[in-house]
Amino acid sequence: MNPQGGKAYGILKAKQDDLLEAINQDFLVNPKYSSDEDLEDKLKAFKQKYMEFDLNNQGEIDIMGLKRMLEKLGAAKTHLELKKMIKEVAGEMSETISYSDFVKMMLGKRSAIAKIILLYEEKAKDPEKPTGPPTKKTFSDLP
Fold first, then answer.
1. In this structure, what CATH number is given to the domain that contains residue 84?
2. Which residues share a beta bridge with 97?
3. How far apart are CA 77 and CA 65, in angstroms?
4. Band of the pLDDT at 22, cuts 50, 70, 90?
């Protein structure tokens, strides 16, 4: 069975989706997070982003998945920095970031390095559009 393509891969991703959706439901009914604005939309976005970088499809982002995520976002890090980020999110003994830890980091008040980078990526997608009338140009402004 080749887990990287075809029907088997689709089944694997569907199982992963179901697992992460169950975790999302736990967050939706948790009183600690129920006051968050747009919680359901945030959780959907987190799940999609997490599944993109869970390379082993086991519900955990390992050091290579984190490396790929940060490289894609233009924020490549050294192996030591990646280990430090995982430790910051998941705790001292873990070598992976579980989906639950990922969501807690994204919804939490702490500014973890990974959270800052992911939020920066979201802001970079929507560049600010100028408002108001265009500025006046003179001949000296021309190239």
1. 1.10.238.10
2. 61
3. 12
4. very high
> Are 66 and 60 a contacting pair, CB within 8 Å?
no
pLDDT at 34: 77
Q: Range with the lowest mean pLDDT among 18-22, 102-106, 119-123, 133-137?
A: 119-123
Residue partners of 31: CB distance under 8 A and separation at least 6:
none
* Domain carrying residue 23: 6-124
Q: What is the DSSP string of 21-85?
A: HHHHHHHHH-TTTTTSTTHHHHHHHHHHHHHHH-TTSSSEE-HHHHHHHHHHTT----HHHHHHH
User: Phi, psi (5° rounding) for residue 120?
Assistant: -60, -40
Angle, CA 115 vertex, CA 11 and CA 74 arms, to 5° = 85
Answer for the pair 27, 33: CB distance below 8 angstroms, yes or no.
yes
Question: Strands 97-98 and 60-61: what pairing?
Answer: antiparallel
The verdict on residue 137 lying in a domain is no
Q: How many domains does the chain have?
A: 1
